[in-house]
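During the second year of the project, the team shifted from modelling isolated chains to modelling whole assemblies. The rationale, set out in the original proposal, was that interfaces cannot be judged from single-chain predictions alone. As a representative example for this report, we include one of the complexes processed in the last quarter. Its constituent sequences, exactly as entered into the pipeline, are reproduced here:
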Amino acid sequence: MCGIVGLHLREPSLEPRLGELLTAMLGQVVERGPDSAGVAVYGDPRLSPPGRAVVSLLGVTPEEVSTALPGAGVVAADATTVVHAELPVDELLATIATALPYATVIGSGEGFAVLKGTGNPVQLAESFGLAGVTGYQGAGHTRMATESAVTPEGAHPFSVGPGQCLVHNGSFANHATIRRELRAQGVRFDSENDSEVGARFIAHHLDRGADLEKALRLLCERFDGFYTLLVSTADSFAVVRDAIACKPALVAETDAWVAMASEYRALDVLPGIEHARIFEPEPEEVYVWRR
Amino acid sequence: MAALTEAEVVDLAASSVRDLNQALHAPQPAVSWRVLNPRGAHSVACGLKDEVTVDIAGHVGYYCAGMNQHATVTVHGNAGVGVAENMMSGTVRVRGDASQSAGATAHGGLLVIEGNAAARCGISMKGVDIVVGGNVGHMSAFMGQAGRLVVCGDAGDALGDSLYEARIYVKGTVKSLGADCVEKEMRDEHLTELAELLKAAEFDEDPADFRRYGSARQLYHFKVDNSTVY
Amino acid sequence: MDSDKGRDQGKDTVRDTGMDFASHGLRESATFDRATIHAIQRAAATGVYDIRGWGAKRSLPHFDDLLFLGASMSRYPLEGYRERCDTDVVLGARNAKYPLHLDIPVTIAGMSFGALSANAKEALGRGASAAGTSTTTGDGGMTPEERGQSKHLVYQYLPSRYGMNPDDLREADAIEVVLGQGAKPGGGGMLLGQKITDRVAGMRTLPVGVDQRSACRHPDWTGPDDLTIKIGELREITDWEKPIYVKVGATRTYYDVKLAVHAGADVVVVDGMQGGTAATQEVFIEHVGIPTLAAIPQAVQALRELGVHREVQLIVSGGIRTGADVAKAIALGADAVAIGTAALIALGDNHPRHDAEYRQLGSAAGYFDDFQDGRDPAGISTQDEELAARLDPVEGGRRLANYLRVLTMEAQTLARACGKAHLHHLEPEDLVALTIESAAMARVPLAGTDWIPGAVR
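Output from the structure prediction step:
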């Protein structure tokens, strides 16, 4: 169980404030998830310099990465180390797999980074340097672990495809079976986490040519349980809820941004909230905003 | 007529919700209150038990006016989950929209939502009157036992599922009816009742535009014929 | 277990018919035994599932499979009477202004007025107060009888919210948020029409005589993240005066207890599958949930890992019968236990003197579980005025107080034998197990070995 926040900026002049706003939003959902947190950010030049492949890693130190990948850019962010290089993403991933086989990849792509850690989310945001992050889109998660352990890998967002990111509030009921099905099709998992199954399912369908909306509709058909999902890619920002829709979800929209959160107080920190259109997503309806 | 008194002002940017509720619970509290900067805070003005008036200038989080007795609480904004949950008496008015489970399990009093209410409005209602100016979401009046729900807009899926004796009036469309909920005849006593509720809510609507829904009472006893519903 | 069936079969055949089936080559199927045949034919006849009371009846690894290591050359016992073995417990000191101070670590579990008669609720209140412990309301709300008699009253906050109101909430000494109970984790309350009298219906805001359908989830929150906010609201309404308990039926107990603590629980109540109910589907009772023995170490581990063992108290229920059960539950790490079924038996449920009447109802003393019908000759689980009048609340209270005192003294006896000056000084290392299953579930070694089977997280 947990708190979700998401922000999709439409107004370029707000991009310098992305991290500041995400930090403020995250701070309002700490009580929902006090034991770990994660954020995905799109377009920050320090974490993901333009034109370079970016891979976010857990389980390695910045020193180990610098040693194993001389010449790569290395950014330290609490438990996460972000690596960027002037290579195609596939190549960078392959290089890492060889040079740092024990590292866990928690995000990859261009112009995209994922930061995760354990501990109090407010402190994590600080050690991530989140307030200084800039960019056009971000998603964050504060976690109260339900059926699995508290580890950085267990925090959301789950990013299992280039630039993809999934944040989940709720509890799937039949994910063990879906995990087995995906494993049988060659998909590999990093954790025993139910949310990771959702992310892998979507990535699997996106890989086979489905668009985000279709992938989410397929998820609604296949997955049982209670869920509010925030899913993003490099050019889209989507929200969907299960048919029963017990887990909270609020969307606020202005000309300058679209935001999503588990509780209103996380949206209240945004500039222009007093004029925003605020609504709750209907069950099993996929809402997508595109860049 | 009571003398006009100045409202007690509490700014939640400076005070805590705890301090506010503590003051509201004190013996013989001030008669009228104004709460500033709620900014989505939870449990604002809950557990009130005196005839006080509380005006909240902004949006509130979950459970505003929870278990309200005798007080008049107005939210000048939106309300989060469970506004006026388990209210016993008094009046709660939301000028904006209400999130899920508005008026859940409430036994009495009047809850007015001028905007829309989300899913499960009036879930398990036990005698409260709820009047919604806009729409209500799915599963509204689920297991509604007593009281009246009036919807001036549309109702979502599964309205009145597993309904007991609560009465439902809807002006707009009903996406679907829940188990054991059926449309019923509008008789004079219903038009009168509805007119009273609309007047109490201060909505200018014509009762003749509404339809009535209630329990078919087929699920009142476990029967094998109903097994598909189970 | 197979051996049990064989024994029963022999007994019944001789008693009932005088004929020895076995020597005539007749053998009962273990899979389709007579009870199963009866169940299938009942389903075929009625088209409705079987509903009954009590908890799981099947034989399960339980406290009987554990033994205490008493005094020895290296451990010395305490003298009875003179050398103190204290039994008091404080519940809910973490956040509440007024925690509960109980004289004994045995409380009365939540049981509803509706399921039970008003006289029964009053008797429970009287007995518990005499013994210095608490009672708990149930689905349906607080009765003046119980509040009047009960020195410490825990008010249950259930999915149905029948009868829930802030006046009673403020009158309560503690609030117990119920997610589920051991008999039916994931099921809501059930009360059939024959017990929904004018009074019960009035309290629950239901039409008289309906078969009550109950919600299984709370109406305005789902999940520990939203429970956190709900607990906050309950504290605000009651000005942070009262301890908040969270009760779960035993399933994924390790995670549930952690989440309950994260959500703000001051006390966690874990009810194993042997926990009783007044009315639920037979399949639910027997096939959902885990034994109490398997739940306790999970709960204690969760509390220890969060550093709150003994700070957030653990109450365990589900098949507590004797002072040995009490002592063993505490030794495994519980702060207190709750009794439900046993309390009713103390009041007179299933007493042999009612045997003739039980037989008229198609049952027998020692077998009666049809509490849902409301025709209980002991006057406990009924709303019929005549039957209910048979239970004298004062006498019932006396019997319950006697039983609670015996439970306490038995537990003290065992604790003193282990050299403990307080029941809470009992520890898992004071126990060994008789079977592999119980050793694995209770996480104590098989007697005579230092083997605890199974991986521990």
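Residues 182 and 213 of chain B are 5 Å apart (CA to CA). Chain B touches chain C at residues 17-18, 21-22, 25, 42-43, 46-47, 49, 61-63, 66-67, 69, 81-82, 85-86, 88, 100-101, 104-105, 107, 120, 123-124, 126-127, 142-143, 145-146, 162, 164-165, 219-224, 227 (CB under 8 Å).
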